[in-house]
Design goal:
Number of helices: 14
Low-confidence stretches: 1-10
Structural class: alpha/beta
Number of strands: 12
Strand content: 5-15%
Order of helices and strands: EHEHHHEEHEHHEEHEEHEHHHEHEH
Mean pLDDT: 87
Amino acid sequence: MPAKVTDPTATPAAPYDKIAALVLQGGGALGSYQAGVYEALAGSHYIPDWVAGISIGAINAAIIAGNEPENRVVRLRDFWDLVTAPSSHWPRLPGVFFDEMYRHAGALSALAFGQPGFFERWDSVAWFFGGFPASYYDTSPLRLTLERFVDFDRINARKTRFSVGAVNVRTGNLTYFDNHEIEIRPEHVMASCALPPGFPAVEVDGELFWDGGLVSNTPLQYVLSYYPRRSRLTFQVDIFPARGPLPRTIDEVLERAKEIQYSSRTRMGTDQFRAMHDIRHNLNLLLEKVPETLKARPEARFLSDIACVTTMDVAQVIYRPDNLQGASKDFEFSRATMESRWAQGLADAGEVLRAAPWLDAAPPEVGVRVFDVIRDLRAASPRRLD
């Protein structure tokens, strides 16, 4: 059953040390859904104090953390209008057939020309004189866009915590660039977006980095596991759903395979952390019943170090479009599709905020709760979200 609907204007009452974190998955053009989710959060009591992202999530996270709260939605809109500008004046005709043609045209345009302010084809003259580059596209336009839309001085002032993940090409290890630990520069964000072979590796302090999604497409586990732990509500925005219909065509097979590839790690990481944190809670309850004479033993001290009383609530907001969008959906940057995804993110996050299931008290033995309000609403009343 879905959680009961509460007053969306009510002040948060749950016992969190920190109110909210926002975790943004990678997924290219699908990232406009994340911008819609943030617009809903921006009008609520749950303004994130920590924003973390991978790939396109890193760009959205940088725009959020790198602007004053009252300017964030506008700057997100400016970015998404910029990268979808080529299709802004394309004529639209009604019907499923024309919708598919429009999406294909958007994807082909990205493959052929790139997207303004994001990536572009390598210059053919440079190819001739410099040899073939190690990627299909050049992402130098992204640096200029980040410098235009992101105040890195604000990020480094730590007004909002900011973390992005990238993979060290030499070691294969996932690294997080965190403004509580290092000074953040545009190349840290670009490194998180450097998905091969489309985009080139980005050098950061003498090491080359690729897109963090090669190892984990979400920074959720990094946020939840960061020590010292704090009780926190985390909004986890996934743009690749784990569940989906059975594919019938090769394009649907490729789309479904991509969804499974980029969502399974999210699900696995959440399940593992929930199991471990519930163990920490139950250890704490057990140790309260242990006699004082036994608490001094090394075994008890070891268990005491593992035990924890923090509460971690995860509110999932997952992009589940009504229709299949094809294997090219993550590089289909058409204006109309962007606006549709943004609107769905805004609507879905509004449903989650109205339900607010985290306001119900958690049992003492439960350390982590994961809420999927939209799934529950659809299961209870499929027509509600039509």
